[in-house]
Design goal:
Helices cover 37% and strands 3% of the residues. By secondary structure, it is an all-alpha fold. The longest helix has 16 residues.
Length: 228
């Protein structure tokens, strides 16, 4: 009996050449790249480099509130006038930086709280007779004043200056030329008074014109000088 021939079925779609090495699609590569980015460790945020002066003071004190300030008659002499203190406090508020050592931003509420903290540590000082300490209300009123010594009788002026001075030293800031000149001219600091609250000054007709000078605190609250 003759052998049956094997049935051969021709398949036009049959593959005769080996599979080529395929590259992953772009979508696969992209998704893998995104996954790697998501799983990668976050880079630590770089902190601003401290100046030599700041590094030295921060190695001595862990809290800027503990930095001692020079005192005169049991008070810190103020060498910046009220307008300068007001400008610097407003800058802290607008820059929205963190209070050193905390995650809290500078706001009027946190600022007055810091002033109250300093007063508790250093002791109260005599300010305007109607003042109630560096409260949020007194701070808000002080920030709205105008003029070089507008609000100079406010506790927010004194404790604002103390706060700024401690922050300046903590950050290694230098004294301005105007500040150094004020230290030489007013050895005891400026008088913490608002000229508008000093009462009327009687000037005789035809007489010399007086002006108010914020001189050292070892003198009267104000002095009248007669210009030639």
């Amino acid at each position: 009996m003759p052998k049956a021939k094997a049935l051969t079925i021709k398949d036009d779609n049959a593959r005769v050449s080996p599979y080529s090495k395929s590259k992953p699609s772009k979508s696969t590569t992209s998704s893998k790249s995104n996954a790697d980015k998501e799983n990668a460790d976050a880079k630590p945020s770089s902190k601003p480099k401290l100046s030599k002066a700041a590094a030295e003071i921060q190695s001595q004190y862990s809290d800027f509130r503990d930095i001692p300030l020079e005192e005169f008659d049991d008070e810190v002499p103020c060498y910046d006038d009220a307008s300068i203190v007001r400008r610097k406090l407003n800058k802290l508020l607008t820059d929205k930086q963190n209070i050193p050592g905390t995650n809290k931003k500078w706001t009027q509420a946190s600022m007055s709280k810091e002033m109250e903290e300093l007063m508790g540590r250093m002791g109260a000082v005599e300010c305007h007779r109607n003042s109630t300490g560096p409260s949020p209300r007194s701070l808000g009123t002080f920030l709205k004043k105008k003029g070089k010594m507008g609000g100079g009788d406010s506790p927010a002026y004194y404790w604002g200056y103390v706060l700024l001075e401690k922050l300046r030293i903590w950050e290694g800031g230098k004294k301005s030329k105007a500040r150094e000149e004020a230290e030489m001219e007013f050895s005891g600091g400026l008088v913490r008074e608002d000229p508008k609250n000093l009462g009327p000054v009687i000037v005789f007709k035809g007489g010399p014109s007086p002006y108010w000078e914020p001189h050292g605190r070892d003198s009267l609250y104000y002095r009248l000088h007669y210009l030639a």
